[in-house]
Amino acid sequence: MPEKNYIRFIDSNYKTMFYLPDGGRIRLTLSDGERVDRVCRFIDECHTAVGNNHYHICEFAERMERNGTRYEPLDYIRDMEFYPKHFFACDETSRGPIYYIIDETETHGFAVAPKGAGKGKKYCVFEMVPDGYRSRPGAVVMWGGTLREIRPQDWGLNLAKINGITQKPKARPTHRR
Predict the structure, then answer these.
(1) Which of 27, 86, 149, 156 is the most buried (most CB within 10 A)?
(2) How many H-runs (helices) and E-runs (strands) does the chain carry?
(3) What is the pLDDT of residue 87?
């Protein structure tokens, strides 16, 4: 079975911004506001091809910063095994199903249980608890069966990322020949 490769995008200080699946797309927003979408290919853990250009991941970050270009993912990793797991208890009597932590801010996080969650508890927003130099998941502050119920954007979470991972992807338009 072929190994799955994920491309890490960082800022110029090596802080991870996001990961992209091999063959995923990013959107570059140039300093003049023009938007350009590029397909990215995995070369190795530190190198990627963005469109037709090959970069070291830090070289790409530094070049984008110097040019005033912002970049964001258009495709997200849909393989749940990529994301950290946590067991959130739905009640006091059980441990609860596996939830995959999809997004985090300094204060809150978002998780999804694709299988086995109780009715109305497929999604949850939880508190992030400081634990030394890192944070860890704390208590659940809201449960929901739909994203509309839970409204992750109200908690400062990235709705585009959450939708991109948890919702069925839209078919890409095909070109007629």
Answers:
(1) 86
(2) 3, 12
(3) 87
